[in-house]
Amino acid sequence: MSNLLKEKLQVINMGIPAFSDALKQQGIATTQLDWRPPAAIPLETREYISSQSKTIEQANQQAVQKLLAATPHWVGMGRALDKIPGMKSNLILHSGPPISWQRMCGPMQGGVIAALIYEGMAQTADQAHALASSGEIEFAPCHHHGTVGPMAGIVSASMPVFVVKNESGANCSYATMNEGLGKVLRYGAYDSEVIERLKWMERELYPALQAAIEHLGKIDLKSIIAQALHMGDEVHNRNRAATSLLYRHLAPAVIESCSDRGLAAQALNFINGNDHFFLNLSMAACKASLDSAGNTAGSSLVTVMARNGVEFGVQLAGCGDQWFVGKAPLPDALFFPGFSKEDANPDIGDSSITETCGLGGFAIAASPAIVQFVGGKSRDAIDYTLQMYEITIAENSIYQIPALDFRGTPTGIDVAKVVEKSILPFIDTGVAHKEAGVGQVGAGVLSAPMEPFLKAYQGLAEHIKTE
Amino acid sequence: MSNLLKEKLQVINMGIPAFSDALKQQGIATTQLDWRPPAAIPLETREYISSQSKTIEQANQQAVQKLLAATPHWVGMGRALDKIPGMKSNLILHSGPPISWQRMCGPMQGGVIAALIYEGMAQTADQAHALASSGEIEFAPCHHHGTVGPMAGIVSASMPVFVVKNESGANCSYATMNEGLGKVLRYGAYDSEVIERLKWMERELYPALQAAIEHLGKIDLKSIIAQALHMGDEVHNRNRAATSLLYRHLAPAVIESCSDRGLAAQALNFINGNDHFFLNLSMAACKASLDSAGNTAGSSLVTVMARNGVEFGVQLAGCGDQWFVGKAPLPDALFFPGFSKEDANPDIGDSSITETCGLGGFAIAASPAIVQFVGGKSRDAIDYTLQMYEITIAENSIYQIPALDFRGTPTGIDVAKVVEKSILPFIDTGVAHKEAGVGQVGAGVLSAPMEPFLKAYQGLAEHIKTE
């Protein structure tokens, strides 16, 4: 003890980093051990998963290779009723895990109201509300129909959708066209401006883009995403480069296939005015990629993370279509003037499919502008991405991060690593007002909640036992 | 001395870093002093410049504020003969400082041959060669006519040029349209493929773009450059984002102003096929910005760095149109298959106007892909940019580098800092074959040579003395 006070201190700290920070400030050589207590799971489950680790690892390699090999292309467009498998005229799709009309959050109810007015099934919000409550309208998650939607994720029968095909696996995914920012359906707004924009998109934008993609045959989304990561996008909250690259492909085709010059210019101006236009295609590309890895017995690979504004749901490759849900968290956000965290709805939307595919928050080192947006530094963006390598199975050699010397993005979340290391997926997100009809109030970042991953971990153990 | 051998060593090394590297490898705490001997200049000149430092600093602040305040816009197009001040039908402009036909390097002579065939003044390379040697053709630097050209920088009377206006200062600059990669005039190629492409550009692309820019009125190049730096470009060797953003502005205007749909699509496809299309506009934007800072008595600000493939020339704000020249260096490059450094022409082109304006190699931290291209790491790219802050006067708050937490680019080279610190400007560049008619053989990076900066430093002293 007397020696301890004489010698130069060299400290290893385990646990709360504030201790080592204080020592460092006094010039004492201090190493902070990167350790945190494991999540609360029964020892029995942990030991069982551990005993199955070889089987799980093999299944994970099989699943992640399919994910990495996926080659999503935009191949066509059509009306939801004609294209989406199982779509019906009285069915409305929504983001996240299953939820009844009664339990839906404000922005999702707002989106449903917008859809019912858009479909001509209601004239006013009150009528739409009554119809939605009547039992005549059915609701289902987008994910049950190979579809993904940002924020409220509402898809109704007449809406035009992109068709995205994984040409390595022949599976398809679907998404509506992005409406832009401001008052829009996906953030729960439903006034006449919202409905008129959607009608213009159906009447004018959709035929122009449909003709263009028919003219081109297909557009390689994987290539666009790969390039966009070299250009400051993480293709979730930032899509400026991907939208620009898509636009470069589209413009000559729109001109050649659309005989109405005014309409062609309008269609291109609409896309030029919306840096998020690529988002829905990015999401559909991720969905088509992850679906190819689904239904791999024994795999702890996360194939879906999706939020309905009330609950955060997770699906695993090894657990079929089973949902594991927990309470959706509130994002840390930069709020638009006049709004604060009190106005914010809990996390909502299928857009976390990008993180599930190794993009978005997982690739945020490629997009420091997003972290700066919430007061962070470019070093923070790098650290967030580096941490995601801890909970993923592979690195995507096509999707690369310039600031990490073009290292592949951390890809394929392993629920076992999430639970055993207590490191949660990092997600970029937009923030909706909690009341129907208002719209977007901010944008930010958050960590996924632990609850659905804990349940998924236990669910996987049960699935393996019964197989 | 006996104590020295007992105590733990702590070393400061000055000079050759290999000494400190060796000590570090043995675990000895070593600090490498960032110092190098000053360049070889007479003590008298050094003392005189030092005695004038207050005047010089004031002049520099005045000059750099004009540079930072410049707002370059693309405002129109026209034929070189009609737009470029002092242009004549028997005048050919070239890159870099003045040079006679006889002293021109291979690729520049190749570019002149291409221009004479393009103008119909010669039918064959031999005829062009004879005409160029005859004395009937005059030659002058682009920079003498407010113009900039990449590589050989050849501009002849019929060539269409962009007109770029600095709307803060009302001065204009000019540049031809970028031809793309492969066999092109600017790299000294002159076969029929080159001439036909130039003729198509004059006949079809130029009227389409001229109509589009008239329709739009103007395009803000400063805004595009600022965004492109957030998207992986340094707008010299990488222009993919800037070209994409320009294209987004242009496409709807091309459609609305061009009644021939086939031609409109062809024009856009040409731009879409050439990620370097923005380069010439980037250079003209830099030229218009720097010209506003020119002719500031007493200023040591570098307003031009330009190479003619034989000599590297520098101009200063405080020395009017006087050139200070030295031998042009050979770039470190990645060579195309079949070529090596032996095939390379020394550094050539006006494109180092981008570095002079704080972009290109000065902003390379925004564009790690370029450093990777020659085997470097993203950390090297950051270090190159950080070093350029040592020799510049200001930071450009509009042009920012994401990886440096959106710090402004190092802007406004101070010749006194270059000479006194022995830190040379870092430049990105393309590499031309040394013989006429071949074309591009690689791309790379290099440091400017010291000689022109030493001469400029002494020239400044003489200018101040005589003013």
**Number of E-state strands of chain A:** 17
General shape of chain A: globular
Assembly state: homodimer
- If classified by CATH, what would the architecture of the largest domain in chain A be? Alpha-Beta Complex
Rg measurement of chain A, Å: 23 Å
Sequence of strands across the biggest β-sheet of chain A:
7-6-3-8
Largest sheet: number of strands, sense, barrel closure of chain A: 4 strands, antiparallel
Write the layout of secondary structure elements.
Two copies of one chain form a homodimer.
Chain A lengths: L1 H5 L3 E5 L2 H9 L3 E5 L9 H9 L1 H17 L2 E8 H4 L7 E4 L11 H13 L6 H9 L4 E4 L18 E7 L5 E5 L15 H25 L2 E2 H9 L10 H18 L3 H12 L6 H13 L10 E7 L2 E6 L7 E4 L4 E4 L12 E2 L3 H4 L11 H6 L4 H11 L3 E10 L5 E7 L1 H7 L4 E7 L7 E8 L3 H16 L1
Parallel strand pairs in A: 1-2, 4-5
Antiparallel strand pairs in A: 3-6, 3-8, 6-7, 9-10, 9-13, 10-11, 12-17, 14-15, 16-17
Helix pairs in contact in A: 6-7, 6-8, 8-10, 8-11, 9-10, 10-11, 16-17
Structure description:
With 467 residues, chain A is an alpha+beta fold. The first copy, chain A, has 3 domains: 2-33, no CATH class; 43-67 and 294-466, v583 fold (Alpha-Beta Complex); 72-284, Enterococcus faecalis V583 fold (Alpha-Beta Complex). Chain A has helices at 2-6, 17-25, 43-51, 53-69, 80-83, 106-118, 125-133, 192-216, 221-229, 240-257, 261-272, 279-291, 353-356, 368-373, 378-388, 415-421, 451-466; strands at residues 10-14, 29-33, 72-79, 91-94, 138-141, 160-166, 172-176, 219-220, 302-308, 311-316, 324-327, 332-335, 348-349, 392-401, 407-413, 426-432, 440-447. In chain A, the strands form 6 sheets. In chain A, strands 7-6-3-8 form a 4-stranded antiparallel sheet. A 4-stranded antiparallel sheet of chain A has the order 11-10-9-13, sandwiched between helices. In chain A, strand 1 (10-14), helix 2 (17-25) and strand 2 (29-33) form a beta-alpha-beta unit. In chain A, helix 6 (106-118) packs across helix 7, helix 8 (192-216) packs across helix 11 and helix 9 runs antiparallel to helix 10. The model of chain A has no long low-confidence stretch (mean pLDDT 93). Chain A binds chain B through residues 227, 230-233, 240-241, 244-245, 247-249, 251-256, 259, 261-262, 264-266, 268-269, 272, 368-369, 372, 377-378, 402-406, and chain B through 227, 230-233, 240-241, 244-245, 247-249, 251-256, 259, 261-262, 264-266, 268-269, 272, 368-369, 372, 377-378, 402-406.
